[in-house]
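Appendix B, record 7
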Amino acid sequence: MSTGEWEEFPTYLELFRAVREYLKKRFQENADFISTPVAQPVYNFGRADILFVIVSAIGWTFSRKVITERILKPLGRHYVLTPSNQSKMPESVWKFFYCLTAWSVNCYILILSGDYDFFHKPSSVWTGWNLTESLPTKMYLFYMAQGGFYLHSIYATIFMDTWRKDSIIMMIHHASTLTLIVFSFALRCHNIGCFVLFLHDICDIFLEFSKLNIYFKIQGDKIVKMHEWLANIAFLSFTAVWYISRLYWYPLRVLYTGISDINGLQSVLPCSLLMNGLLWILQILNVYWFYLILHMSYRVVTGQSVEDAREYDVMEKIYQKGSKKLS
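Structure tokens (predicted):
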């Protein structure tokens, strides 16, 4: 594992001051923006990379359909889950194992391999940066696989997942993340891109585990209390992890280094304003979702049943009617 001194965390006030200075400098110099010519050969995203992402997305979609039909749907019938939960359970199983695997691989690359210092020294994401740099093989494969997964996720949100109140928001999230992956790869900002994925994937592990236990709570004509306890514990853990990773580490590590440390580069980073704009869109979505999370956490600490706050009201009514019949 890489060792070294930890960089001091900036304050939220310092973050907003850095934003002000960054925007002032960008607009004064007019050095970069969307108008930066994208035909320059330094934009390293070739046909082979595009094909890799597309094939990866097709692979994720095919794998999910096969696993859902042959394993997860029979599993739901075996445990006699409610019809609504049988339809939603495969989605959460898929996302849980994907996020767990992706985060574990990313954890190895960024921390356990000892090759990078991003976790304790975020400014090192820019060390040795240049637009012609080639990605290490393990980071390249991870990046292409993630790009394929988020391309698959856009398709899955429309055609495979249960439609929810914030499904359109989810599509914006997936599209923004995919755009960030493509831009950060093409501009060789893959270091900061992997750091962003590291901080976001860990939250989804706890979320999907909590939802899985909600779906398995009602089995046939009985309520399994163990799953209710696990769902509550996982959800409260998810709330804490969300704040730490997405509302503390992400803005004060990733967003700060994206606008403050970038000014120390010897050469101009093309489209840095666009890249930072996409990073801030993710942060706005994080704040919106945290509002929903706090609402659900309140239900947990007051002894109410945990449900997915994003479901349509009709789904909640179906769940409530099922609970009344079993009581």
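Remarks on this record: The longest strand covers residues 218-219. The chain has nine helices and two strands.
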